[in-house]
Design a protein that fits this description.
The complex is a heterodimer of chains A (about 450) and B (about 290).
Chain A: H1 2-20, E1 33-40, H2 43-59, E2 63-70, H3 72-81, E3 89-93, H4 94-103, H5 115-119, H6 123-127, E4 130-132, E5 137-143, E6 146-152, E7 154-158, H7 159-169, H8 184-193, E8 196-201, E9 204-216, H9 221-226, H10 245-259, H11 267-272, H12 275-280, E10 284-289, H13 294-300, E11 305-308, E12 320-331, H14 338-350, H15 352-360, H16 369-376, H17 393-400, E13 405-409, H18 419-427, H19 429-433, H20 438-457
Parallel strand pairs in A: 1-2, 1-3, 9-10, 12-13
Antiparallel strand pairs in A: 3-12, 4-5, 6-12, 7-10, 7-11, 8-9
Helix pairs in contact in A: 14-15, 18-20
Chain B: H1 4-40, H2 58-65, H3 67-79, H4 82-100, H5 105-116, H6 119-129, H7 136-141, H8 154-180, H9 184-192, H10 197-208, H11 210-225, H12 229-234, H13 244-254, H14 258-281
Classes of the chains: A alpha/beta (about 450), B mainly alpha (about 290).
Chain lengths: ~450, ~290
């Protein structure tokens, strides 16, 4: 009996150890190497990427890709949990890029790419994922990820709602210029004149006694700050610059949209229904959208939408500047199948097939410049609602920059930690609620944000 | 044929195996986690980085300097108000249902349903109910309160209302069991003495269900201190409604500041242990004399 007891224990321990053991074989029975690819996205985006992965495997019969994905809000937690056994290929949001590149967990990709391959892609997208680990400098050094996309977060307009209200109020007002930005004050004035409680009586629209329509559903903090020639910190993110008068002016402009002009939901009203949902529900004329929203707008709303330039502030040298988000596709430095993993990363980011598919599915602006400026702008193989937004050149102008329009990465791209931004955003509520002015706020918060930046930068040594 | 002593030894050996499983589980998943958490609280551990530095008590200093943590601590303690309120309503309900006699299974089921319903589903439904623009509550009461808004108190009261509603059922079931153990003769004697219904409630019922009240208050406070779902789902991260556990989540899991989050966990654990200890030390008040 003693022996049988010992035998059971040995078998149990053996089974446990076996379960913990990874697959030591690199080739499957068809002679293919297996790599893992981890991403995020809605069910639709996952289906799109599965299609891309299937195509990749059809064209690369020596590679088997195991694709898995979770929702965007769960992604980083999941990735962090796999830290000791990272997937071969995975998404890396640009706001998380710096610590990951700094840690040495990402494979430098330069040696796998030719100049010709890189020249076809937006140079901003490539430099976005360069990082010098010695000088802690973004935009320089090795390339640690390839851009899945560049996502300009532009201002979007509910064209139908705008025109209904203009007609209902009998206004003599044209649509905002699609290429020349309005000023902060002109934009606020326009929204004031569009105030409306929309109701349809006998087929006629009236602006009394109906649903309250907000001029703008919310306002992107970085969009206002950048568009008034201000920033959150200096070039190397070591010194806060929120005490800059341009910053204060932009901050007060956002607050005043609700407090003075009454054209934007209050913070409490935004807590009831976020700006994006309010726009989708037809509760606001203007809002913000990225290229990744195109598919949802094609399929889930029934009004015409279009892009306009972000309003620009009165500060000297100010340009209409949207924030530009991005997602990188990185290869684990510990991948045992680096060549195969890089091949997949390249396929998903800089191959023509994937880039055409990306815009045709309403996911992103193509990374390849020629495809973006020709096929994407000319709506090749798009029809019906898919040609919206008509002013999609705005997305490209934000990426390319022109005399009036520019784009800039999100502030959290430049810092090791993101807590400072979350805390700033929460601390700003009294400004947006009208309990304190922007000037008074920055006076009292400057030391806090500087302390937060210092803590973030303390990792870089 | 085996002797009795051999069987005894065999049974003893197997009993150790069965005892070992939960003990190993406890050490693996609870004690080791606590030890790691304590160690992390003294380091700047960040899973992305390859190296971890010992920082002494720096994380505790950061914790107390963090306005969000102070807010979370205040909220957590304030929201504990829902524990006695839920117990009180649970007791009232149980008395009512006991007086209704045996034909109250539907009501019992109805009141107990929140206890067996998904916390996620409940919070999502309450978020709709409390919505300041199109919520049912404002509409029915014809009021304009931004329950989910950025005001200091509305979201706290929204969470308390939800928690009281959810806690009543559990309290009711336990109190019902307790009430059934109170001899009817006590109430008959009180009736003979001319006691009013309130006197009977406060002089007989309340004292005789003290052990249950003690259990409910201890478990209620522990659960309240560990509250997370309300902060995440009902308050949706609204700083006026976040709790310490939610703070641990956003700072540790979301922001990779595991050191600070672990420091908060250690503090929270210590506070819960202290409060439970004090309650047990004062547990003489539950003895029914």
């Amino acid at each position: 009996m003693k022996r049988s007891f010992l035998s059971i224990m040995i078998v149990l321990i053996g089974l446990i150890l076996l379960a913990c053991n990874g697959d030591g074989n690199d080739l499957d029975d068809q002679g293919r190497v297996t790599i893992s690819f981890f991403g995020w996205g809605s069910a639709e985006e996952q289906a799109n990427f599965q299609t891309l992965v299937d195509r990749f495997m059809a064209e690369n019969d020596d590679i088997r890709v195991v694709y898995s994905a979770v929702s965007a809000d769960m992604y980083m937690r999941n990735l962090n949990n796999q830290m000791n056994n990272l997937p071969d290929v995975f998404y890396i949001p640009d706001t998380e890029f710096m610590p990951w590149a700094d840690s040495g967990r990402l494979l430098p990709l330069d040696s796998y790419l030719s100049e010709a391959e890189l020249e076809r892609v937006w140079s901003r997208a490539i430099s976005h994922y360069r990082y010098d680990r010695d000088s802690f400098t973004l935009g320089e050094g090795p390339l640690f990820a390839l851009p899945k996309d560049l996502g300009p977060f532009a201002m979007v307009m509910n064209v139908d709602l705008f025109e209904r209200i203009v007609a209902a109020k009998g206004l003599d007002m044209d649509r905002p210029d699609p290429s020349v930005p309005m000023t902060f004050s002109a934009f606020a004035d326009m929204l004031e004149s569009l105030k409306c409680q929309l109701r349809t009586v006998g087929g006629e629209d009236t602006c009394e006694g109906g649903q309250r329509i907000f001029g703008v559903t919310h306002y992107e903090l970085a969009a206002a700050i950048y568009s008034n020639n201000a920033n959150f910190f200096n070039d190397d993110a070591t010194q806060q610059t929120i005490t800059d008068p341009n910053f204060i002016e932009a901050l007060q402009y956002i607050a005043n949209l609700h407090l003075v002009h009454g054209v934007m939901p209050s913070p409490s009203e935004q807590a009831n229904l976020n700006g994006f949902q309010r726009f989708m529900n037809g509760g606001g004329i203007f809002s913000f959208m990225g290229p990744w929203d195109m598919k949802g707008f094609w399929e889930n709303i029934n009004f015409e939408f279009d892009l306009i330039p972000l309003p620009v502030g009165p500060a000297e040298g100010a340009k209409s500047t949207a924030w530009v988000g991005s997602m990188g596709i990185a290869v684990s430095e510990r991948s045992r199948q680096r060549e195969a993993a890089v091949r997949l990363a390249k396929y998903l980011t800089i191959e023509e097939a994937s880039q055409r598919m990306a815009y045709q599915l309403g996911q992103s602006v193509p990374n390849i410049i020629d495809i973006a400026e020709d096929d994407f702008l000319n709506n090749v193989e798009l029809n019906g609602r898919q040609i919206m937004p008509l002013n999609k050149v705005m997305f490209l102008d934000i990426i390319r920059h022109n005399a009036h329009i520019a784009g800039h990465p999100r502030p959290t791209y430049f810092t090791y930690e993101n807590i400072w931004f979350d805390d700033l955003f929460e601390a700003l509520l009294p400004v947006f609620n009208g309990q304190i002015t922007a000037q008074a706020f920055v006076n009292q918060y400057a030391t806090t944000i500087q302390r937060d930046l210092d803590e973030s930068n303390s990792y870089l040594n | 044929m085996r002797s009795a002593s051999t069987l005894y030894r065999l049974e003893k050996r197997w009993s150790l195996v069965f005892i070992a499983l939960p003990v190993i589980g406890f050490f693996t998943f609870t004690i080791s986690a606590m030890v790691f958490s304590f160690w992390f609280s003294l380091t700047d551990f960040n899973p992305v980085r390859m190296e971890t530095r010992y920082v002494g008590l720096e994380n505790f200093r950061r914790l107390f300097a963090d306005a969000l943590f102070r807010q979370a601590v205040f909220n957590t303690f304030f929201l504990l108000i829902s524990v006695p309120i839920g117990m009180f309503f649970g007791l009232l309900l149980s008395v009512y249902l006991q007086q209704k006699g045996a034909k109250n299974y539907a009501l019992r089921l109805l009141y107990y349903l929140p206890a067996v319903s998904s916390v996620v589903a409940i919070n999502i439904i309450f978020r709709y109910l409390f919505n300041g623009e199109f919520g049912l509550l404002n509409h029915l009461l014809n009021i304009d309160v931004q329950w989910l808004g950025t005001g200091r108190w509305p979201i706290k009261f929204a969470i308390i209302i939800r928690n009281v509603w959810a806690a009543m059922g559990v309290a009711m079931v336990l109190y019902l069991a307790g009430l059934n153990n109170i001899p009817a003769s006590y109430y008959e004697a009180a009736d003979i003495d001319g006691a009013s219904i309130f006197q009977k409630f406060f002089m007989i019922t309340v004292p005789l269900v003290r052990p249950i009240s003690f259990f409910l208050i201890v478990t209620g406070i522990i659960a309240g201190m560990q509250n997370f779902a309300d902060a995440q789902l009902l308050a949706n991260g609204n700083p006026q409604g976040i709790t310490v556990v939610y703070y641990i989540w956003v700072r540790g899991i979301d922001a990779n500041r595991y050191g600070v989050a672990s420091a908060a966990s250690i503090l929270l654990g210590a506070i819960i242990m202290l409060m439970t200890y004090v309650q047990f030390r004062r547990s003489s008040w539950v003895e029914v004399r």
